[in-house]
């Protein structure tokens, strides 16, 4: 196997993990995480005049539920690799269009959305294909890219539910800025455990 084939094989290993019972169990554990999230997303959508949005790795729609309330009908989209999560998202957020796709191959055209974002999904991408996922998010965004992830100045792997190579704290803002130096950092923030989040650091970048 050459280096490129190895990268794709590692991405597929994690996609298969999330697509399996492991991902179904995540759906069960997190059925009830949405209630507090509106206090972040509703003002966020208004502040940035969001008219369309895509969440990469949306699970059952805990973010999309609030975004869909703020956007015109039919302008809220999600992709995920776990079919159980997608089925639940169709019930929980009926106005969102949620389809199966891997983050490294987003099935939408260039600059299709005002906002493309992740919440707790880049942390589950291997080094080998993280740049591919970020490039896909940039490709599909007309204006804004957002990611809320676990931060560490220097990369750290965190053991995750008995799996190796499945969760990484990184300085995602720096990685993005190094890859896309023309994009400007518009906002950065922190969503603490005390407000029902998971100590998530977020960055919002704007297209030049
Ligand atoms: C930790 S959960 C976060 C869910 C959601 N973003 C939230 O904030 O509640 C990670 C989600 O990303 C999905 N996922 C993980 N890797 C993916 C990939 N490579 N492509 C698409 N979805 C992926 C998983 O199936 C899961 O639904």
Short précis:
The protein is α/β, with parallel strands linked by helices. It has helices at 3-19, 21-29, 38-47, 64-70, 83-92, 130-140, 172-179; strands spanning 53-56, 76-80, 97-100, 113-119, 141-149, 156-157, 168-169, 184-191, 200-206. The structure holds S-adenosylmethionine (SAM).
Alpha carbon gap, first and last residue: 38 Å
List the ions, cofactors and other small molecules found in this model: S-adenosylmethionine
Q: Per DSSP, what share of the residues sits in E-state strands of 2 or more residues?
A: 15-25%
> What's the CATH superfamily, by name?
Vaccinia Virus protein VP39
Topology diagram in text:
Layout: H1 3-19, H2 21-29, H3 38-47, E1 53-56, H4 64-70, E2 76-80, H5 83-92, E3 97-100, E4 113-119, H6 130-140, E5 141-149, E6 156-157, E7 168-169, H7 172-179, E8 184-191, E9 200-206
Parallel strand pairs: 1-2, 1-4, 2-3, 4-5
Antiparallel strand pairs: 5-9, 6-7, 8-9
The chain binds S-adenosylmethionine.
What does this structure look like?
35% of the residues lie in helices and 23% in strands. It has 208 residues and is of the alpha/beta class. The protein has a single domain (3-206), classed as 3-Layer(aba) Sandwich (Rossmann fold), CATH 3.40.50. A seven-stranded mixed sheet has the order 3-2-1-4-5-9-8, with helices on both faces. α3 runs parallel beside α4 (64-70). It is globular. It starts with a helix and ends with a strand. The structure holds S-adenosylmethionine. S-adenosylmethionine is lined by residues 15, 18, 23, 33, 57-59, 62-63, 79-82, 85, 102-103, 119-121, 124.
């Amino acid at each position: 196997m050459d280096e490129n084939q190895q990268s794709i094989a590692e991405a597929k290993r994690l996609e298969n993990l999330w697509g399996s019972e492991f991902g179904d169990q995540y759906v069960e554990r997190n059925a009830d995480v949405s209630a507090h999230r509106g206090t972040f997303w509703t003002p966020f959508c208004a502040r940035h005049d969001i008219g369309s949005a895509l969440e990469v790795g949306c699970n059952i729609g805990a973010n999309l539920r609030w975004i869909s309330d703020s956007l015109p009908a039919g302008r809220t989209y999600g992709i995920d690799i776990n079919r159980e999560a997608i089925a639940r998202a169709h019930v929980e957020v009926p106005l969102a269009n949620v389809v199966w796709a891997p983050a490294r191959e987003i099935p939408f055209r260039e600059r299709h959305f005002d906002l493309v974002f992740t919440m707790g999904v880049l942390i589950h991408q291997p080094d080998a294909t993280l740049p591919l996922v970020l490039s896909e998010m940039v490709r599909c965004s007309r204006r804004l890219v957002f990611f809320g992830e676990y931060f560490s100045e220097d990369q750290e792997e965190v053991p995750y539910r008995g799996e190796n190579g499945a969760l990484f704290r990184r300085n995602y803002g720096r990685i993005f800025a190094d890859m896309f130096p023309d994009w400007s950092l518009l906002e950065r923030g922190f969503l603490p455990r005390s407000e029902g989040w998971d100590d998530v650091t977020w960055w919002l970048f704007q297209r030049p």
